[in-house]
Write a structure and sequence with these properties.
Strand order of the largest sheet: 1-2
Distance between the termini: 132 Å
Order of helices and strands: HHEEH
Radius of gyration: 37 Å
Bound molecules: zinc ion
Helix content: over 70%
Amino acid sequence: MSFIDKLGDSIVSMSKDVGQKAKEASGIAKLKLDIRIKQEYVKEQYAQLGKVYYEAHKNEDVPEKQRFDKISDALDEIDRMELQILELKKARRCPNCGMEASEMAEFCSNCGAKLGVVVGESKAEDVTENDQPKEDVELEEEPDDNSEWL
Ligand SMILES: [Zn+2]
């Protein structure tokens, strides 16, 4: 066998090796991805199972009571923060369906329930307070001008 032939053979066997290794690598990567997908699925199922268990037993004196209380506290905190967001956005929730609605809206855009208009008390006060001082200043200046002419 000539040198060229030997070289040719080893290149062929080398590329076979590379091909095999690439196949193994992509096989491992695929398996790892499949494992991750299954792990996410199991995690989701555990979470749903935990929620069902929490809803069913949250008011009972179960061994997991401490964990239940932590979940209840966190849910309360979420409610409070969501209310804060509504206040900052000058919005509120429809009492019928829970949909977000503007403070100015008379009816819910989702279910049509009557919301009633919230009267902005602070805005009405601001307007009258701003108008009064201007009138006072004008009234005080006018007698001075007249006295100079007399
Ligand atoms: Zn509604």
